[in-house]
Amino acid sequence: MKNSPTKIRKAVIAVAGSGTRFLPATKAQPKEMLPIVDKPIVQYVVEEMVASGITDIILVTKWDKKTLEDHFDRSFELEYALEQAGKKKLLDDVRRISTMANFIYVRQKGPYGNGTPILSAANLVEGEPFVFAWGDDLVLSKKPFTKSLIENFEKNGSPVIGVQAVPREHVDRYGIVKLRPGTKEMELVVEKPAVGKAPSRLAQFGRMVLTPEIVEILKRTKLGKGGELWVTDAISEYVRGGGRFMVEEVKDGEWLTTGDPLNYLKAVVEYALKRDDIGPGFRSYLKSLSI
Q1: Phi, psi angles (nearest 5°) of residue 97
Q2: Looking at the whole model, is its pTM more than 0.85?
Q3: Structural domain tally of the chain?
Q4: Which of 7, 119, 15 is nearest to 57 (CA)?
Q5: Which of 4, 145, 244, 267 falls between 20 and 30 A from 216, CA-CA?
Q6: Is residue 5 part of a domain?
Q7: Does 2 reside within a domain?
Q8: What's the family (predicted)?
């Protein structure tokens, strides 16, 4: 079924994970608040959404995410101190965080799985297409990747998911997409397939535009691999039923997951090297290391 294009203004960002791979650093702070140089991971995700035209950010949280919620709120004492110190640029940067979008917070309820945040926010996006993102996935690219997804949706009128090729030996870590021959349409997606059974090397990641049809399918989707609720299972049912689901590859950039310490460090390095203020000095330092 082809959906009529509708202007997308809402994004649902899943930030209810526990971040156990980062303990003890995540004992008292959300994983999504770990810094990439001087900004938390989730702020980069939100900024990408805002730069793509999103005005309403729905953050699906849980009980221990208060510091994340506070980050996107006003901080009057800090703002006053910066103003008194004459630190105008820092003051502007801090104030912008709370005003760049409308922030809505929803507590996650339901089984484990990346489909549960969608159901937790379903009443807030009812009848609308929306962006769904994971709060620990970054895309470092010249053009905001979410904007590319939205443009794909506006052109084709169909839901769309972001993908990037990964090494063959890593396909069992991701949902892997197979394309219909000669197209950029999904034929199927397999969640964490065995290395020898993967249909391709195209890994889907935490950026997609979903439609009401996908949400309705997800509501009746049974728990899948690992006893979790997977959005990929709902997408697969949609495609099997004749639905058209587009695929958008990252261009002029790179998807950077921060879900484990090694990949988190890689993301920090990549973002630091792109900075005009610290990039050159950091690059020189890396070259000086005799490792």
Answers
A1: -60, -40
A2: yes
A3: 1
A4: 15
A5: 145
A6: no
A7: no
A8: Belongs to the UDPGP type 2 family.
CA atoms within a 13 Å half-sphere pointing along the CA-CB vector of 107: 5
Q: How far is CA 250 from CA 104, 138, 147, in A?
A: 28, 11, 11
pLDDT tier at 3, thresholds 50, 70, 90: very low
Tokens of 216: 């309705």
Give pLDDT tens digits for 161-195. Answer: 999 999 988 888 888 898 988 899 999 888 788 88
Q: How far apart are CA 216 and CA 214, in angstroms?
A: 5
What CA–CA distance (Å, rounded) separates 82 from 186?
Answer: 50
Token digits for 58?
Answer: 């729905």
Q: What is the CATH number of the domain that holds 184?
A: 3.90.550.10
Report the amino acid identity of residue 8.
I
Residues 6+ apart with CB under 8 A from 17: 31, 32, 135, 136
Locus of tokens 């990929």: 232
Can you tell me the mean pLDDT for 129-140? 95
Tell me if the bond preceding 24 is cis, omega within 30° of 0.
Answer: yes
| Structural domain boundaries enclosing 28 | 10-284
Q: Is the pLDDT of residue 274 over 90?
A: yes
For residue 23, tell me if it sits in a domain.
yes
Per-residue confidence (pLDDT) for residue 106, from 0 to 100 = 95
> 6: how many CB neighbours lie within 10 A of its CB?
14
